[in-house]
Each structure stands twice: as structure tokens, then as C-alpha cells.
Design brief:
Residues 1-20 form the signal peptide. By secondary structure, the chain is of the alpha/beta class. The protein has helices spanning 2-21, 47-50, 53-73, 104-109, 121-135, 168-177, and strands at residues 77-84, 90-96, 113-116, 147-153, 158-163, 185-189, 192-197, 200-205.
Length: 206
């Protein structure tokens, strides 16, 4: 259970970090206009706006019951994360590849919202592991390192592959030639994600 609690804490920190990248650089101010997302400053009074009873309820539900609920979703499960509504109230999002019954009591406690996606968590994990094994083996020379990290990106429903800037096109070509479905791979460089869709590419802000 400890790993689940640690995962929940990490999810909150990551969610704060993602929001912070879009936070305004104006002086710290706890007013509604300047407090949509907390900054990375631990002294930021905006953090208090997000430490709400809703956040406590959601993280408690996830740490005590989510493992059971997730197991009931089987192969339809495609990932989960914390998010905030327009009133800064936390809720849990679960991604599914098809409609599945979810415990109503849990859904209420976690303020659960469901989104439907194409690829399951199992598919993303399998592709992620395969790319890691084939492209991230130990290198003897630092300059040979091209892919810096790889793993499921559940919000974008893809496998996120972080690539050195100079190798972005090259790695994209190698993944295509290796037979990977580029519709489920997000190549990342800097603050941008390029998502292959058929023969085209669209860019998403990180």
C-alpha cells in the first residue's frame, strides 16, 4: 500500500509541476486572477488554494481503493491522473478504451471523470518496454546516447520518447522502419511533443 500512497503523492507533485509550467510570472498573489495554478515556489500562497478537502478526499480514495477499482477495469484501463476544475477542486480522471462499470461509491469519492482513448495501458507499456530494450541499451560512448527517456504518456494516450534535438528526425525514421505504430508514439524535444498521425505530424505543447 505504501507504493500506492507514494504514487498518489508523486501524482500531486507532477500535476503541480505541469501546471506551474503555464503559471504567470507576475509577483506572488493569492487573488483569483493570479492563482489559477501554483508556481514552483514552496512559499507560494497559491498552493493553499489547491490543498482543499476535495484533494484530500480524492487522494484518500485513490490510496485506499484505487488498486481494487483499477483491477476491475481489466484490459480497458488506459491510465489515470489528477486534475483540477475551474474552481481549483481536484478530481481523478481515468482513461478507458471502452465503457466499463465503475464502483459508484468510489466514483463519487474520487470525483471521477472518464475519458475514452484508443490505446490501453497494457499496449503503451508493451511498446514503451520494447523501445527501451531496443534503443536504450547501455552505451560505451556518451555521444551515442540519442533517446534520453521513454514511457507511457497517459494524458496524450501515447508512448512518450524524449530524444536529443539533433536526433529527432533520425529516431523518428528508425522507429518507423522498425515497424512501430507511429500513431501511438510521441517524440519529444525540449518543450514540444510531435505526434505522428499517419503520414502527418502535429505538435502539442508540453
Amino acid at each position: 500500500m505504501r507504493w500506492t500512497q507514494n504514487l498518489m503523492i508523486l501524482a500531486v507533485v507532477v500535476s503541480f509541476h505541469v501546471h506551474a509550467q503555464n503559471a504567470p510570472t507576475a509577483p506572488l498573489d493569492n487573488s483569483a486572477a493570479n492563482c489559477r495554478f501554483p508556481t514552483r515556489n514552496p512559499a507560494d500562497p497559491c498552493l493553499d488554494r489547491f490543498m482543499t478537502p476535495e484533494l484530500d478526499a480524492v487522494t484518500h480514495a485513490m490510496s485506499t481503493h484505487w488498486e481494487r477499482v483499477q483491477a476491475s477495469l481489466g484490459s480497458a484501463y488506459a491510465g489515470t491522473w489528477l486534475d483540477y476544475d475551474s474552481n481549483d477542486k481536484a478530481y481523478q480522471v481515468v482513461a478507458l478504451t471502452r465503457p466499463m462499470p465503475i464502483d459508484k461509491d468510489y466514483a463519487t469519492q474520487a470525483r471521477l471523470k472518464t475519458v475514452y482513448v484508443t490505446y490501453s495501458d497494457a499496449e503503451l507499456q508493451a511498446v514503451s518496454n520494447d523501445i527501451a530494450q531496443r534503443f536504450m541499451l547501455p552505451f560505451t560512448k556518451r555521444e551515442e546516447i540519442r533517446i534520453t527517456s521513454v514511457g507511457p504518456d497517459v494524458k496524450n494516450n501515447c508512448v512518450r520518447v524524449d530524444v536529443l534535438k539533433k536526433e529527432l528526425e533520425n529516431i523518428g525514421n528508425q522507429l518507423t522502419q522498425a515497424g512501430y505504430n507511429m500513431n501511438l508514439i510521441c517524440l519529444r524535444e525540449g518543450q514540444l511533443i510531435t505526434v505522428g498521425v499517419g503520414n502527418s505530424v502535429k505538435v502539442l505543447q508540453d
